[in-house]
Amino acid sequence: MRSPVRFERRLEQPKWLNWAIPVVSLIAALVLGAIVLLATGKNPLDVYSRIFERGFAGTRALSGSIKTATPLAFTGLCAAIAFRMGLINIGGEGQFYMGAVGATWAGLVFGGDLPTGAVVIVMALSGMVCGGLYAAIVGVLRAKFNTNEIITSLMMNYLAAIFLNYLIYNSTSYWRDPESRNFPAGKPIPDRADWNFYEVGGIKIPLAFLIAIIAGAAIWVLYKRTRFGFEVGVIADSPKAARYAGIRTTSTIVIVLALSGALAGLGGAADVGNFRGLLDSKGLQMSGYGYTGIVVAALARLNPISTLFVAVLIGGLTNAGFALQGPDFPSGLVGTLQGLILFTAVAGEVLVKYRIRRNRRAAAVMA
Amino acid sequence: MLSKTRGSLGLALVAALGIGLVACGGDDESSEPAATEAPAASEAPAGSDAPAGTDAPAEGASLANFTPWSADAPVVDCAPDEGPLKAAWIYVGPTNDGGWTQQHDAGRQAVQDHFGDAVETTYKENVPEGPQVLQTIEDLIADGNTVIFGTSFGFQDAFVEAAAAHPDVCFEFATGYKGADNLSQFYGAAEDTDFLAGMAAGAASKSGKLGYLASFPIAEVLRGVNAWTMGARMMNPDATVNVVWVNSWFDPPNERKAAEALIAEGADVLGQKGIDSPATGDAAKAAGVPWAGYNTDQSANYGDVWLTATEYDWSVYEIARIQAVLDGAWVAGNYYGNLSDGFVTLAPFGDLVSEETRAAIQAELEKLTATPGSQFTGPINDNKGNEVLAAGVSHTFEELMSMAYLIEGVVGDIPAS
Questions:
Q1: What is the pLDDT of residues B346-389, one digit of tens each?
Q2: Which residue of B has its CA nearest to A71?
Q3: Can you point out the beta strands (E) in B189-299?
Q4: ipTM, 2 dp
Q5: What's the gap in Å between the CA of A2 and the closest CA on chain B?
Q6: Which end of chain B is more exposed for a tag (fewer CB within 10 A), N or C?
Q7: CA distance, residue A360 to nearest chain B CA (Å)
Q8: By the CB < 8 Å criterion, does A319 face chain B?
């Protein structure tokens, strides 16, 4: 009962695999998707051209995709920076919420007085501090007590959700709009706290996405060009060796998680400043940006620059998905197509590290 | 340890995907009737003079219980120059949620069946509240849709923005309160059917201790709690209603826990408002306790414990409004339907409701059909002992829309408001 094939670890990973595997994965996804579409009586070419048209073709589609991608870029970076060190921070969701809480506070307090530019900076910093501190709790627990950060960061997502509900639904908090007596809602930030959109070649780009590009570049520099980044790499490969080498692993764990949370928190600030304009407890919880960010980071192979592009890809696919659905195109089928693309992309990853060998000779020997 | 966890990246990814999916599917009905602020402009939408027993929706612009935002509200021409009229619905949950969204999609299908080839309907489901809403609206307009229905309170600001950007598109919004020249609001008097359901519940209780699950302490839900309690006490004068706030429109596990807790505290009949899942019914069924549902007729699935429920028929409004577009007579305004036009109805009774109780409910149903909201006539005290309405005095429509008290007989408080 031997399997006819086996995986064999590649001794070296040729450069061409880095682009060949994603391309082949995408083709595989399209072929698999076409089979599903044909089975449900759809014309795959029509469907694919519509996905392309609504997700990526033209300035309107791209503007929409970048808008949808913006929160995912931040949560993607949040996941990527922690995962690179082997810290599985599932808490981007909660850290995003806390960033939104902090940024809304800053926007409400300073939005009426300071000039717009200053308000944006204060909101962004406030969001980063709140998200960062929230993730640092996970970091301290991990560093001091060796608590599993997957569990703690996940649990803290639920805590953050309850905290949001408390602020908007169960208290007369500073974040809640006192005018919203009949339906609890967040207090809108003043106009001056609104973040801008910029038009580049007809494509509307939110300020927050430009900040995400800067953040992505900064992380790339941090990890590739600094001593800190080198240490993180050593710890990721072998914590024991890192300790022998005198690297302070405990403080590095806390710092990396705090940075990770700060990025998610910055995303929360962007959500308030660029899009919603208030703390939207229910809307945030429905969106699940933090969890989607993990997918984005994984598809980007934890590379901060690729994360930005993958975020736009997922943003476009999301918008195209909504464009596709309707009475004769159930959202379940849309989800299946999106899932196929993600699945083949992640599955393709295996082929970067391993190659497939046939087991024929082994079988022959046994016979 | 660190190197070990790195290996579990794949596992974490799978976990995250799973959680994400749950999160997506979870908040289905968050929209629920957020009836909110008094649909400002409507002066007398209660339509007490509506012809009782009209089951066919009104033709053209003459829709009962509909009031234009102003006397000189402009006619918006959103009919296409040629081809079928394209209308779209945007839902916050899946169309098979067994409640809010399912009922809305039934309305859409009724519109499609009624107009046949003259109208082409579509929908978008599972649209999360936030930036995605405007994106979806723009997409629908790019596809040629000129009438757009929104069914989640959290979509409201996106609808206001889209209405301003597309003056030639007709926007219809359920359960909100903001209007514009091309943005209408529609909802209806569920408090009347809630009152009738409460009567069935009160009659079914032996101990006089009833349990009630409520979502958020907003006016629309408070109207339901109070009307239901009033109905129960009409049949069972000493009855008390123990209210639990679930703080969600859709959270089946917590709903079930809350329902079980109410039963453990001695409640022998359960009811619910603003709660979409039948999880309360599951708890009731397990304990053999009678249950009044909400939103959909669940008599087939919960026959042993089923009493009745408030049901919505959204097509009553929607068919008339699409007709108005086709007639070139669409103006924006506010609609508050009721029993008289069939917008709200009482679901079929379960076997637990006696003939005597049915007769009593029928009598009240006729009164409420003739004069919606008339159950809120004094003397009415709140549950702190203060007089709310003196004998013979009724709430105005605005008072109903901004209700902020719990009536005598309710055990519980309004959480921080």
A1: 999 999 999 999 999 999 999 999 999 999 998 999 999 999 99
A2: B131
A3: 209-214, 240-245, 269-273, 291-295
A4: 0.86
A5: 25
A6: N
A7: 29
A8: yes
Domain range holding B85? 66-189+314-337
pTM to 2 decimals? 0.84
Whether residue B38 is predicted with pLDDT greater than 90 in this model: the reply is: no
CB-CB neighbors (< 8 A) of B143 in chain A: 323
Rounded mean pLDDT of B389-400?
Answer: 93
In this structure, the strands spanning B269-273 and B183-188 are: unpaired
pLDDT of res. A343: 86
Q: Do B123 and A326 touch (CB under 8 A)?
A: yes
Distances (CA, A) of A63 to A280, A334, A363, B216, B388: 23, 21, 56, 36, 53
**Chain A closest-CA separation from residue B129 CA (Å):** 5
Banded model confidence at residue B62, pLDDT cuts 50, 70, 90: low
Whether B19 is in a domain gets the answer no
pLDDT at A14: 78
Residue A304 located in a structural domain: yes
Q: Verify whether the Cβ–Cβ distance B8 to A150 is below 8 Å.
A: yes
CB contact under 8 Å between A68 and B132, yes or no, is yes
Instruction: Tell me whether residue B50 is in a domain.
Output: no
What pLDDT, on the 0 to 100 scale, is given for residue B61?
44
pLDDT-derived band at A303, boundaries 50, 70, 90: very high
Tokens 């989607």 correspond to A292
Distance from CA of A318 to the nearest CA of B (A): 9
Residues 186-245 of A with CB under 8 A from B: 235-239
DSSP assignment letter at B245: E
Spell out which residues of chain B touch residue A318, defining contact as CB-CB under 8 Å.
Answer: 132
* pLDDT given for residue B4 in this prediction: 39
Look at residue B37 and tell me whether its pLDDT is greater than 50.
no
Q: Are A253 and A142 in contact (CB under 8 A)?
A: yes
Q: What angle do CA B54, B56, B62 make, to 5 degrees?
A: 80
The CATH number given to whatever domain includes residue A112 is 1.10.3470
| A234, A282, A287: best to mutate for the B interface, most B CBs within 10 A | A282
